[in-house]
Amino acid sequence: MKYAILGAGGMGIQYGVLLQEFAHQQVDFVDTWTENVEKIREQGGAYVSQDGEGRHLVPINVYYPEEYAGDPDVWIVFVKQHQLPEFLERTAPHFREHQVVFSAMNGYGHFEKLAEYFPKHRIYGGTALIGAYVYGPGDFNFTGGAHAKAMNLCAYDEHDVEEDPIERQLFADFQAATLNPTIVRHFLGMCLAKIVFNSVLNTLCTMYQIRFGEFASHPAAPILTERLVDEAYGAAEAAGVQLLGTRESEVETIMHTASIAHPLHYPSMYQDLTRCRPTEVDYINGYIARLGREHGYACPLHEFVTQEVHLAEHAFAIHHPDIAAKAASQSVELAD
């Protein structure tokens, strides 16, 4: 199948490059980050490293939404939640009835936006325990080798995979790309399980500007994880959502990922914080807290952590006025 990646950031580049190099699929990239697009074009591709080593240039095709003229079978979407509406609006003239869309973005809210452009039976969701870091425009690092990658795949309307050759082909291509996919049946439970995961590692590591492994090495890491996971599961249970695993298995997954699978990884939320860009905490811990409120279950820990991250954003901007000024100027350029 032919793929087009919306969002040539860390995760978009990783999915696209792996599909191109290992699954031998045709892949295009569509992005709105001007510096990134121009740098990739200037150097003839994207520089890619694996755990900080083996940096090499991978030739890729990248386009702005308005100039893209391709007709992919599958759109893969990796865009920041707050940027998604504008990105979809700019790309919408290229959407066709025969196409499907897949996304494994962090947080929750993007599938409702995708459903404004694609019928539900042509939307596929996923969650990814796959690390990527953006050094700068056109320069990316993948963390954790093929053995450390894992992802889930599920049809948005939960239809049977046996009746869907497209989902089976997606699975085969992701498998060939060393992304280690698993097909699951409960869409919302799949999504919420990843949100719970991110509500611990992404949020706490961002607040304290540390790697996953540095968090795991602290003696209080297990109890902090247990408390946030327990409260999140309580919100899910109040909402009638069955997650993929138990509280205990989720804690085990988080600690294993932090200490064994991806100890060198900085979360994407940290990358946003240190570039003075808005984080996605409102779509992660904030979503858990909102889900609890809507079903009569208080989530004081997730409410508190959400505001703590916003305070961390504020503090970082105070201590790094040069970075804050650059981010503000880029926001003005995007608005124009």
Automatic annotation (TrEMBL):
Residues 3-146 form the Ketopantoate reductase N-terminal domain. It comes from the Bacteria. GO terms for cellular component: cytoplasm. Pfam families: ApbA (PF02558), ApbA_C (PF08546). One of its GO terms (biological process) is pantothenate biosynthetic process. Keywords: NADP, Oxidoreductase, Pantothenate biosynthesis. GO terms for molecular function: 2-dehydropantoate 2-reductase activity; NADP binding. Signal peptide: none annotated. Its EC number is 1.1.1.169. Residues 190-311 form the Ketopantoate reductase C-terminal domain. It catalyses: (R)-pantoate + NADP(+) = 2-dehydropantoate + NADPH + H(+). InterPro entries: 6-PGluconate_DH-like_C_sf (IPR008927), 6PGD_dom2 (IPR013328), ApbA (IPR003710), Ketopantoate_reductase (IPR050838), KPA_reductase (IPR013752), KPR_N (IPR013332), NAD(P)-bd_dom_sf (IPR036291). Pathway: Cofactor biosynthesis; (R)-pantothenate biosynthesis; (R)-pantoate from 3-methyl-2-oxobutanoate: step 2/2. Catalyzes the NADPH-dependent reduction of ketopantoate into pantoic acid. Belongs to the ketopantoate reductase family. This is 2-dehydropantoate 2-reductase. It comes from Bifidobacterium animalis subsp. lactis (strain AD011). The lineage of its organism: Bacteria, Bacillati, Actinomycetota, Actinomycetes, Bifidobacteriales.
